[in-house]
Amino acid sequence: MIYVTGDTHIPIDLGKLNMKNFPVQKGLREDDYLIICGDFGGVWDGGSEEKYWLKWLNSKNFTTLFVDGNHENFQALEENYQIEQFCGGKIHRIQSNIIHLMRGQVYALEGRRFFTMGGADSHDKEHRKEGKTWWAQEMPSQLEYQEAEDNLSKQNWDVDFVITHCAPETIQQHIGDDYSENDLTHFLEQIKNKLSYEKWFFGHYHVDKQVDFKHICLFNKILRIV
Question: pTM of the entire structure?
């Protein structure tokens, strides 16, 4: 089984994964997955609190997968974890059962194909310190954009699910007027117009909202999709 939910900002919004809010986890196994749509927040400063919550999450019956958001320590992700292969795509394995799904990848999970594209533009950069609480790598590089297109081309631009942190431009417009367009929302809009897919799940906006039949914004809700 595969579930998907929104940002966790570990530990701020991790309560959605406790037994009260996610009771079905009792019957899950290691080969069942929960996907977090960015702003995981569990790789940050390497402190004791971070280690505690990673151990807590890693002890769950299921395996946690996440795309990166804008509030991640990208330097730590790049420097502390080697790139591995998992279900057809590149990952960082944070713990045995906690896996970072990297940008522009396509994974085969439970017989379905998932395209992932993390990242987003922070609206609060002026209140953060670069290299401490904000990293420029929050936005994809040209190489990552190109890798995404190359991998989708190998799939003949046909997948089952898309997992991102932010949304394509025309979908973002339905969330609110306060969100500006940028290179990533523009890229995702191009992908949306070219790609064949069943559903697109994203986080970032801190609301639970089904924009239309295909596009679903998640924050607190946990949905089973496979």
Answer: 0.97
